[in-house]
Backbone:
């Protein structure tokens, strides 16, 4: 009997000493609705949320819409007020997270209102994929609730330009700048230049042709060279030389190389020229010219 | 006897020549009011001393305590523990701390939610754009990753892994494996406008700042939530002096250096607080993340299309004057201090060290690529063409990044325009060909005329005329 009693007591103690399953927070009667401004009560998109099952469709929030979430928090089937009840919005690409506290009454009824103005500017940029989770937890040993409930699609205002002025200064790599050089000096079409060059050059054969037509010749060359070969050779040679020196000045020489050459060749021209022109005068006086 | 004494002197100088681990110096002032607290952090002090730092423990109420001696900082680094009384005393006013930072000293300020932060310090941090919660007893709690062994009810010992890089282009000095225990932390929020502040350790996404003295049934007024809470913040001033705000002083205690913690639903692991404290003090006291500029050079490259194989293809080093539209090569040597020696600095993959060639604003901004490495440094170089604008230009390397000391180098040069004999010659200008050909045609015609005049014989009518005149 005693043994039975002690066994019974021991078993009762053992049973009562078994720790109860750890309580966990959750929520029920949850709805999320998006109300557009000016459409009244009837024009809102309303969905009901279930704990542990995220919504398949994304909720769209326009520029003048307001998002409203109503739910009742529960700790293990009994409605209770937790210390922490947040709507946690997280951007998948930039890992930015922001929480909005729900206002919870003692009975566990909680609600939160959101407009696009309250969202950070990073969320209103295009291409941001935002997941919304509910975080319900409190002090003590109860396990908190933290899982995704829906995906939020932020529709930015098409009319407003994207605000680029708000970016703060951060130390980092700046965009590269490659200087764009001014283009080369533009020339007229090379064909036009070539045509006029050929026109200019063509005047020389025309001139020589005209002289030949008018009776030009170099018949006295033999006679002149036999009478004064050195003088004539030097004279004509030095005149050609002067032009040659001026060509060298044009192409590569500077003035300090040119002037002495000009002086030297000019002297030759002067001295040989007086003798050569005397010979020409002789021919003229002899009646040949 | 002389030999013996000289050997003694040599040995003595060698023994006192300790390679300082910090670039700035090794004198640390630790300000704590209650010397009984000192023993709670004995492993921390021992770790600092093993890295050859010389610690001086002073109470803030000491009359003779001064951060400066004869105008220069008396200590290289300062660790401030929270005071028991209202403030740090007349010797450590915010103005003194600011002067100390301006003089290049590094400060590690530890806060605790158990001790009231002096309002002067709160205002000082607000000037840095670091905001503290306005009620003095707030702490950071997280109901999802807390230590079940020590804070099963309060949830104020937050467990989190070591931080990952702040951005892909920022070096991470605080990363690694393991779990950190952050007990009773004071959460800070960082303002948006300053580029000088950066969070070292951010709180997990489900955490928030909670005031235990708040009315339990009132509306929850959150100061900050999630990763907006910075548990440890860093400020690096423009002179590269470092100021770290450590939100949880208790994480440096011996008890947390080798504690076993268990997150809800997790296994029991040992914390890595000791290793993290070492990383934190290494950064704050300039043992890591210090950049040094070595040799800076620029010269003209005569033919940029061919790689430079010998020195006759480059001009003299650092000329004062360049011409527009010439190829110029610029190189800079960067090293980073790594605890006890300089090692080559490699910029992170997403980052680039950039060169700006600018007059009033940059005309070229190019990435410098590492071309060669010495045992202690990396040489970064690039080649570019000077713009076709003449004027006074400067080669600027302005490399400022979070957690690295600032690098600002400027070399000024003149860029002149073309000289009179550097323009293209007239025959290369197609527009000038008609004029040139006309001129030389005239010259050719003149020479033909000279020959014709000298040697021509009258024919036809002229001959008849001549015959008549001479007869």
Residues:
């Amino acid at each position: 009997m005693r043994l039975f009693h002690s066994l019974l007591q021991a078993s009762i103690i053992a049973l009562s000493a078994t720790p109860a399953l750890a309580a966990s927070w959750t929520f029920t009667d949850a709805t999320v609705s998006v109300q557009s401004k000016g459409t009244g009560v009837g024009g809102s998109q309303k969905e009901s949320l279930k704990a542990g099952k995220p919504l398949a469709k994304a909720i769209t929030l326009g520029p003048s819409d307001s998002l409203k979430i109503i739910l009742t928090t529960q700790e293990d089937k009994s409605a209770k007020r937790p210390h922490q009840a947040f709507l946690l919005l997280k951007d998948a690409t930039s890992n930015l997270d922001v929480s909005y506290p729900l206002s919870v009454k003692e009975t566990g009824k909680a609600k939160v209102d959101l407009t696009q103005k309250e969202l950070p500017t990073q969320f209103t940029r295009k291409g941001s994929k935002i997941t919304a989770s509910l975080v319900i937890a409190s002090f003590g040993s109860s396990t908190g609730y933290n899982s995704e409930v829906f995906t939020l699609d932020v529709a930015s205002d098409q009319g407003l330009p994207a605000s680029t002025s708000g970016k703060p200064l951060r130390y980092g790599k700046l965009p590269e700048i490659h200087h764009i050089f001014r283009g080369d000096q533009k020339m007229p079409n090379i064909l036009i230049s070539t045509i006029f060059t050929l026109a200019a050059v063509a005047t020389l054969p025309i001139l020589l042709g005209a002289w030949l037509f008018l009776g030009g010749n170099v018949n006295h060359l033999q006679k002149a060279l036999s009478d004064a070969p050195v003088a004539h050779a030097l004279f004509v040679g030095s005149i050609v030389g002067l032009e040659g020196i001026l060509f060298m000045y044009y192409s590569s020489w500077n003035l300090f190389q040119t002037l002495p050459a000009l002086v030297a060749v000019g002297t030759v021209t002067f001295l040989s020229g007086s003798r050569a022109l005397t010979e020409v005068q002789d021919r003229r006086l002899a009646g040949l010219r | 006897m002389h030999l013996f004494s000289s050997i003694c002197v040599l040995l003595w100088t060698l023994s006192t020549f300790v390679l300082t681990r910090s670039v700035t110096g090794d004198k640390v002032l630790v300000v704590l009011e209650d010397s009984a607290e000192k023993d709670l952090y004995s492993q921390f002090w021992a770790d600092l001393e093993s890295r050859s730092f010389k610690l001086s423990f002073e109470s803030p109420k000491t009359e003779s305590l001064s951060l400066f001696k004869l105008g220069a900082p008396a200590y290289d680094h300062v660790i401030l523990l929270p005071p028991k009384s209202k403030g740090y005393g007349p010797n450590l006013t915010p103005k003194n701390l600011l002067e100390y930072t301006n003089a290049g000293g590094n400060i590690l300020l530890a806060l605790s939610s158990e001790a009231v932060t002096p309002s002067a310090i709160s205002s000082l941090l607000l000037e840095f754009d670091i905001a503290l919660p306005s009620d003095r007893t707030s702490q950071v709690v997280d109901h999802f990753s807390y230590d079940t062994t020590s804070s099963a009810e309060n949830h104020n010992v937050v467990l989190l892994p070591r931080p990952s890089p702040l951005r892909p282009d920022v070096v991470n000095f605080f990363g690694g494996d393991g779990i950190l225990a952050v007990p009773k932390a004071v959460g800070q929020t960082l303002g948006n406008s300053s580029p000088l502040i950066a969070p070292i350790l951010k709180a997990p996404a489900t955490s928030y700042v909670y005031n235990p003295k708040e009315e339990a049934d009132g509306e929850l007024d959150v100061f900050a939530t999630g990763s907006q809470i910075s548990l440890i913040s860093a400020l690096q001033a423009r002179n590269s002096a470092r100021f770290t705000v450590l939100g949880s002083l208790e994480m440096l205690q011996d008890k947390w250096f080798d504690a076993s913690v268990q997150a809800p639903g997790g296994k029991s692991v040992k914390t890595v607080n000791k290793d993290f404290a070492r990383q934190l003090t290494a950064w704050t006291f300039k043992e890591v993340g210090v950049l040094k500029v070595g040799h800076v050079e620029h010269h003209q490259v005569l033919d940029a299309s061919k790689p430079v194989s010998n020195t006759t293809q480059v001009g003299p080093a650092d000329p004062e004057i360049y011409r527009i539209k010439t190829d110029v090569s610029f190189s800079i040597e960067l090293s980073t201090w790594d605890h006890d020696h300089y090692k080559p600095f490699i910029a992170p993959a997403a980052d680039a060290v950039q060169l700006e060639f600018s007059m009033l604003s940059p005309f070229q901004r190019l990435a410098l690529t590492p071309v060669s490495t010495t045992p202690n440094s990396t040489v970064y170089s690039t080649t570019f063409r000077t713009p076709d604008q003449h004027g006074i230009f400067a080669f600027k390397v302005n490399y400022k990044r979070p957690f690295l000391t600032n690098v600002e180098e400027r070399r000024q040069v003149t860029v002149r325009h073309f000289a009179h004999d550097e323009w293209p010659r007239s025959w290369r200008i197609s527009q000038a060909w008609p004029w040139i050909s006309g001129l030389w045609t005239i010259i050719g015609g003149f020479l033909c005329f000279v020959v014709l005049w000298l040697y021509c014989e009258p024919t036809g009518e002229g001959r008849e005329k001549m015959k008549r005149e001479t007869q």
Residues 255-285 of chain A form the longest helix (31 residues). Chain A touches chain B through 71 residues (CB under 8 Å). Chain A has six helices and eleven strands. The helical segments of chain A are 2-17, 121-124, 190-213, 221-227, 229-251, 255-285.
